[in-house]
Amino acid sequence: MSASLGLYRLQQVDRKMDRSRAQLDNIRATLENDVELKQALNRVEAAQTENFHSDHQLKNAAAEAEALKIKIQQAESSLYGGRVQNPKELQDLQKDIASLKKHLSTLEERELDAMIKAEKSENDLQSAKTDLELIQARLGNEHKNLLADQSRIALELERFAEEREAALGPIEGSLLQTYENLRQQKRGTAIAEIVDGACASCGTTLNPATQQNARSPKQLTNCPSCGRILFAN
Ligand SMILES: [Zn+2]
Questions:
Q1: Is 22 helix (H, G, I), strand (E, B) or coil?
Q2: Residue 20 Cα, ligand 1 centroid: separation in angstroms?
């Protein structure tokens, strides 16, 4: 049995644990950070503000046009009521009415614009609300699944921790320290398998002597290129 077998087995467990921990981190981040939901909430809020404004503008435009219509009616009843006889005054009244009517058509255009805007903002608001409801419903399901995954992976990790304890048994303390240090330096892989005469981690071809040394039950052999401990099956 080669000296690196124990460490190789330990690394297999450690890798499973690394994967599970990464999965748990991802789940936690997803649960905490619902960008999509926040965006949908912001959209509803913005649409509500816009809707409130456009309703307000529509009411103002309608009230302004209504007030002007009353003014025109009053001017017309003066014009045709017979109380005003003076031709100059009558002419002025006619001019006034013409200019009021011109202004009225401007106001009515504005009212129509406001109406279109109000309708659009009402539609926007409804669609933002629908989107939000859909996202909330979907996330509700997603969250349920994520929570289920979370407890499954947590249980898995507990089982791996027991496996790790068992794998640690035959490994002496100083060796473990070397392994931990290498794992930190080498992004999680301290032990490299020899596959087809090469280091499986860095791909360097290993000479027969190195391959033979890696099988030694007494001493560890490092890859001459990446420095990882070599393991020969
Ligand atoms: Zn290597």
A1: helix
A2: 26
Quote the ligand 1 centre to 225 CA distance (angstroms): 5
Q: What is the CATH number of the domain that holds 125?
A: 1.10.287
Q: Please name the residues in contact with 130: beta carbons below 8 A apart, sequence gap of 6 or more.
A: none
Question: Beta strand 191-195 with 198-199: parallel, antiparallel or unpaired?
Answer: antiparallel
Same domain, 112 and 206: no
> Does the pLDDT value for residue 33 go beyond 80?
no
Ligand 1 center from residue 201 Cα (angstroms): 5
Helices 87-168 & 35-81 angle (0-180, nearest 10): 170
pTM, to two decimals = 0.62
Which residues are within 8 A (CB) of 216 and not within 5 positions of it... i.e. 6 or more apart?
A: 2, 3
Report residue 32's pLDDT band, with 50, 70 and 90 as the boundaries: confident
Please check whether residues 125 and 212 belong to one and the same domain.
no
Instruction: State residue 115 phi and psi, 5-degree precision.
Output: -65, -45
Pairwise CA distance, residues 164 & 9, whole Å: 9
User: How confident is the model over 164-221, as pLDDT tens digits?
Assistant: 999 998 888 889 999 999 999 998 899 999 999 999 999 999 999 999 999 998 889 9
Contact criterion met (CB below 8 Å) for 198 and 214: no
Please tell me whether residues 209 and 138 are part of one structural domain: no
Number of domains comprising the chain: 2
Q: Are residues 87 and 127 in the same domain?
A: yes
Report every protein residue that has its C-beta within 5 angstroms of ion ligand 1.
199, 201-202, 223, 225-226
